[in-house]
Amino acid sequence: MSPEWISVAKSAQVPEGGTLQVSCGKEILCLFRIRGQVYATQDTCTHGAASLSEGYVEGEEIECPFHQGLFHIPTGKAVGKPCIVDLRIFEVKEADDEVSIKGCES
Ligand code: FES
Predict the structure, then answer these.
(1) Tell me, what's the pLDDT at 18?
(2) Residue 14 has what pLDDT?
(3) Looking at 59-104, which runs of residues are DSSP E strands?
(4) Residue 27: which CATH number?
(5) Are 54 and 68 a contacting pair, CB within 8 Å?
(6) Cα–Cα distance between 61 and 70 in angstroms, integer?
(7) What is the pTM of this model?
(8) Domain range spanning residue 72?
(9) What does the alpha-carbon distance between residue 75 and residue 7 come to, in Å, rounded to a whole number?
(10) Could you say which of 3, 5, 68, 88 has the lowest number of CB atoms within 10 Å?
(11) Is the CB of 67 under 6 A from ligand 1?
(12) Cβ atoms within 10 Å, residue 46
């Protein structure tokens, strides 16, 4: 796990209510922006090989595009079947037009 902040995107690439798949070290993450705040989770669903960046954001939840499982974005909690395993979440910092992440596998 990298103790360093890694720049992964420009702020403008993460639209309100949208998603963005990014690489962080060896990992693929999904960025979200909810009420101006950027959040980061693992991009792969815990139920199967779906990319959550291709899912649908509804409020604070992301719906998986494969079987419509739901996760709470700020906490990563699995909140809708068939998903029962939580997502990993990552620390996010947004400054000077850059989104940076701490804690991904380097
Ligand atoms: Fe995500 Fe099945 S792969 S709900």
Answers:
(1) 95
(2) 97
(3) 61-63, 70-72, 78-80, 89-95, 98-102
(4) 2.102.10.10
(5) no
(6) 6
(7) 0.95
(8) 5-102
(9) 21
(10) 3
(11) yes
(12) 20
Pocket of ligand 1 contains residue 87 by CB under 6 Å: no
Residue-wise pLDDT for 18-58, tens only, equals 999 999 999 999 999 999 999 999 999 999 999 999 999 99
Q: How far apart are CA 85 and CA 10, in angstroms?
A: 30
Long-range interactions of 20-24: CB distance < 8 A, separation 24+: 20/53, 21/51, 21/53, 22/101, 24/90, 24/101, 24/104
- C-alpha–C-alpha distance, residues 100 and 70, integer Å: 25
Q: Is the CB of 66 under 6 A from ligand 1?
A: yes
CB atoms within 10 A of CB 62: 27
* Cα separation, 23 vs 61, whole angstroms: 22
What is the number of structural domains in the chain?
A: 1
Predicted local distance difference test score (pLDDT) of residue 106: 79
Match 């962080």 to its residue by tokens.
Answer: 24
- Ligand 1 atom at shortest distance from the alpha carbon of 50: 3
